[in-house]
Structure formats: C-alpha cells, structure tokens
Amino acid sequence: MKKYIPHIITLTSLCLGIISIIESCNLNFNTSSYLIFICLFLDAVDGSIARYLNTNSEFGKQLDSISDMIAFGLAPGILIYNFMDFKFENSTIAFTAFIIPICSSLRLAKYNITNHNKSFKGVTTPVNAIFFSSLPLINSYTLNETIYNVFINQFNITLFIIIMSLLLISSITTFSIRIDEIRQDKRKLFFIFISLSILFFFEFTGLPIIVFIYILLSILKIVK
Q1: pLDDT grade, residue 6 (50/70/90)?
Q2: Rounded to 10 degrees, what is the CA torsion of 111, 112, 115, 121?
Q3: Which of 51, 93, 110, 123 could join 167 in a cystine, given CB atoms 3.0 to 4.6 angstroms apart?
Q4: How many domains does the chain have?
C-alpha cells in the first residue's frame, strides 16, 4: 500500500488545483490563491515521501508532472486572467495571462526529458505559481500604497507575466529547495531563514520578494 501514498497526495494536489480554477472563475481570488499554496505544500511532501519510502517510479513522475501543470500552470494562469479582467476591466490585456500555462507546459515537458540532480534549468513552475498566487492576496491585504501600486498595476503584472514566463523556459540554473535536501546545505537553510523572516515582516507582500531573491541567487550562482 505504501507505494500508493505519494500518488494519493499528488492526486489530491491535482484536485485542489481544479477547485482553485473554479474558485477564481467565481471571483474568489483569495481562496484560489490559498488552494494553490496548499498544492505547493503537497507537491513538496509527495516527492519527499516517495523518496523516503523508496517508491519513486516513472508513473509517479508523469503523474506529478500532470498535477503540476494543473496546479502550477493552468490554475495560476486562469487566476491571473480572471483577476486582471475583474480588477482592471480589461479582458484584452488579461489574455496575456495565458502565457503562464503555455510556458509552464513547455518547461514541464523539457523537465521530463532532461537529466537533473540538485538543480534545474529555468525557474520551476511552483516558484512561478508562488509569485502570481501572491498578487490577489497583496491586493486584499497590503496597506502600503507604494507596494500596492507596484504589484497591483496592469502594466507591471503584464511585464511580470512576460518576464517570469521567459524565465520558465530559460536555460538559467536554479537550485532545488526540496525538503529532504535543505537540511544538508547551509546556504539553502540560510535562504529559508531569510524567506521566513521576510514573510514575518512583510506577509504576503514578501512572497514576490522571496522569488526575486531566489532568482538572483540562482543567476549569481551563490546557491547551487
């Protein structure tokens, strides 16, 4: 039975990703974002459990990829489309959000045929999902007007979509932050400490900042 545990967790993440899509279509943007964050947690857990139980398989790899496409590609894309269309009353510019699932699918397909150890090529779909899922929460909870205007701005969001999507399919090397690998690397532990500190002080506004730091550390190859 133990070999099915990671699959059940992966399928749960997939289902929550679908519910997230439904919630964003119903204009429940915060709920949609929270569901994606739960998917992020489950995605981290299922891989760690599979490695701990020694139940890694090609089937599990493909199932995880499909789940990632729904939870971290399609769900954030539709969330941002609905958010932009509702917030800015501009369905035309909102269509740029569909670049997110398109580039996510290209990134995941490339990942599946590439050998990788403790690093990846391009920004991962979970990291991309963190960035865009934070925007509706910043819209709801951020009181700082300057920060609000930076992130909740249709021009900037469109720019973020283009840049992050290009980073998804780029060749930059990004480091892994898997749970079972973090404790073995002091630099990654330090990154986690900094990230938690940023979240403590800046709450949801800190999420895009953490993503920026992650990308910067990867590009500068400070953490590998």
Answers
A1: confident
A2: 0
A3: 123
A4: 1
- Side chain identity at residue 29, one-letter code: F
Kindly state whether residue 224 falls inside one of the protein's structural domains: no
What's the pTM value of the predicted model, to 2 decimals?
0.91
CA dihedral for 156, 158, 162, 164, sign (positive or negative): positive
Tokens of 63: 């199932």
Token pair of 153 as six digits: 């701005």
CATH of the domain at 158: 1.20.120
Residue 120, domain extent:
2-219
Q: How far apart are CA 167 and CA 162, in angstroms?
A: 9
> What is the torsional sign of CA 50, 55, 61, 67?
negative
Contact between residue 66 and residue 17 where contact means Cβ atoms under 8 Å apart: no
